[in-house]
Amino acid sequence: MQDKNFDKLSLKFANNIYGTTKGEIRAAVLWRDLAPALAAQGKPRLRILDAGGGFGFLSQKFAALGHEVVLCDISEQMLALAKQQIAASQTPLSIELVHSPIQALTAAQYGQFDVILCHAVAEWLIDANTTLNGLLQLLKPNGLFSLMFYNKEALRFHSLVSGNFDYVKRDFVVKKKVGLTPTHPLYIEDVRQWFAQWQLTMVTQSGVRVINDYLKKHLPPDFDTQQLIEMELAYSQREPYLSLGRYVHFLAQSPTK
């Protein structure tokens, strides 16, 4: 078994993730969580690692604010897309592109970072625990670790309310894998236990898409997407909605050494 490489799906992935309402919600929640936390670091120029960051949607936003970013991805096509977008930017962006599995990153080669982002990656990894723990070796003391992962319990609930009972009984095993369906979704409590073992102090916890994925097919004629995003933000940090997020975002701080 190998970790997922999106080379064959790069354009589809990019359009599906950030070219849709789903992507707008994701970007809104992540930005709401991250922007104040990064500002609280008190440094005008942070070193940020975007591990498995694809074409670098957030990398480009943070680089535009003057931060120094290393964008690493296993997909050559994703990085080619990132290179095109960086070149087209009207604002000079300090982004180093690294074509590599995130497991191969070392502090000896790249130094340590004030912030590490790892979004929508863990659920594609055969051994997420070991890989993420390895990433933390590149995080400075009091640094920020931002992890967004696919929530297995939300996958179950969505399948139940959709009537896909056989799928649930098979523990989500399908005969034909869908290209963008994560292969290793995670339980929230398992990830919380990992964070405790790694001595990370939780700063923020949010659900991502706590409403959107459960909307009825027939919506009111005056349905407003912007209002949906506002509601997503309003309920993303409240239970039981947080735990029903299709993705969950944990932002935590490393210990002082």
TrEMBL record:
- InterPro entries hit by this protein: Cmo5U_methylTrfase, Methyltransf_11, SAM-dependent_MTases_sf
Q: Which GO terms of type biological process are on file?
A: methylation
Keywords for the protein's UniProt record, in alphabetical order: Methyltransferase, S-adenosyl-L-methionine, Transferase, tRNA processing
Q: Tell me what reaction this enzyme catalyses.
A: 5-carboxymethoxyuridine(34) in tRNA + S-adenosyl-L-methionine = 5-methoxycarbonylmethoxyuridine(34) in tRNA + S-adenosyl-L-homocysteine
Q: Indicate yes or no for the key word tRNA-binding.
A: no
Which residue range or ranges hold the Methyltransferase type domain? 49-146
Residues reported to bind S-adenosyl-L-methionine: 26, 52-53, 73, 119
Q: What is its EC number?
A: 2.1.1.-
Q: Does the keyword Disulfide bond apply?
A: no
Q: What class of enzyme is it?
A: transferase
Q: Name one GO molecular function term.
A: methyltransferase activity
In terms of superkingdom, the source organism counts as Bacteria
Question: Pfam families per the record?
Answer: Methyltransf_11
Assigned protein family: Belongs to the class I-like SAM-binding methyltransferase superfamily. CmoM family.
Function, please? Catalyzes the methylation of 5-carboxymethoxyuridine (cmo5U) to form 5-methoxycarbonylmethoxyuridine (mcmo5U) at position 34 in tRNAs.
Name this polypeptide is given: tRNA 5-carboxymethoxyuridine methyltransferase
Q: From what organism does this protein derive?
A: Shewanella litoralis
